[in-house]
Design brief:
With 201 residues, the protein is α+β, with helices and mostly antiparallel strands. It is built from 9 helices and 5 strands; from the N terminus they run E-E-E-H-E-E-H-H-H-H-H-H-H-H. It has a 5-stranded antiparallel beta sheet, covered by helices on one side. The longest helix has 12 residues, at 66-77. The relative contact order is 0.14.
C-alpha cells in the first residue's frame, strides 16, 4: 500500500494531478479541499495517499492532510459510499464542516452533495456520528496559507471548473449554472470550483 508520496507537481487538472516521484509519474485524484492547497506546478508537494484496487483500474487518491484521508477511509466503509462519492463529499466540505454537519444531524446539507440521497445521508449520520469529535489537524506543511497560490491552468478556467464539477458527480447543465452564478473576471478554476461548491450547500 502506498501511504505517502513526495515529488514534483507536473500537471494539475482538477480533480487530478500528475506527481513526478524520482522519474515515475503518479496520477492522483484529489478532493477539491486538498486541490486548493496545492503549490504551483514545478514545485515540490507531499501527499498522503490511499489506493483503491478494482478489477478494471487501480486508483490513487491524494490528500494534503492526514485527517482528510482518515475521513475518506471512513466514508468508503459506509454502505453505499464508493471512492467517487467520498471524493465529492470531501470536495464539498472540509473535515470540520462535515463533522459539524454530522454532529448537528444536518441532513438537508448532506443531501445537497451530488450522489448523496436521503438514505445515504441518513446512513452517514448513523454510522459516523461521534467518530470525528477528537480528530485534530495534522499538516505536512506548517500553514496552508504559506503555500504558493495555485495558478490558472489555461485561458478558460470556467470550462475547467465545469469539467471538475462534472467529474465530482454534478450534471453538465447544473455544473454550468453553478459556475456562471459565481464567475467573476480574473478568477482561477480553483476559485470558481470552491465558490460554486460553497454556493451549492
Amino acid at each position: 500500500m502506498i501511504g505517502r508520496l513526495q515529488g514534483i507537481l507536473i500537471e494539475k487538472q482538477p480533480p487530478e494531478i500528475l506527481l513526478d516521484v524520482n522519474g515515475v509519474g503518479y496520477e492522483l485524484l484529489l478532493p477539491m479541499t486538498s486541490f486548493y492547497a496545492l503549490p504551483e506546478t514545478g514545485a515540490s508537494a507531499t501527499l498522503f495517499t490511499h489506493m483503491v484496487v478494482r478489477e478494471d483500474a487501480h486508483l490513487l487518491f491524494g490528500f494534503m492532510q492526514k485527517r482528510d484521508r482518515t475521513l475518506f477511509r471512513e466514508l468508503i466503509k459506509t454502505n453505499g459510499v464508493g471512492p467517487k462519492l467520498a471524493l465529492a463529499i470531501l470536495s464539498a466540505m472540509s473535515v470540520d464542516e462535515f463533522s459539524y454537519a454530522i454532529e448537528r444531524e444536518e441532513l438537508s446539507k448532506l443531501v445537497k452533495i451530488p450522489g448523496v440521497g436521503k438514505k445515504t445521508a441518513e446512513r452517514l449520520l448513523v454510522e459516523l456520528k461521534g467518530k470525528f469529535k477528537d480528530v485534530k489537524p495534522h499538516f505536512f506543511v506548517d500553514n496552508v496559507a504559506d503555500l504558493p497560490n495555485a495558478q490558472p491552468l489555461d485561458d478558460d478556467p470556467a470550462s475547467e471548473a465545469v469539467a471538475a464539477l462534472i467529474s465530482l458527480g454534478y450534471k453538465a447543465p447544473e455544473a454550468e449554472k453553478m459556475v456562471k452564478r459565481v464567475a467573476q473576471a480574473g478568477m482561477s478554476s480553483e476559485m470558481l470550483i470552491r465558490d460554486a461548491l460553497k454556493s451549492a450547500l
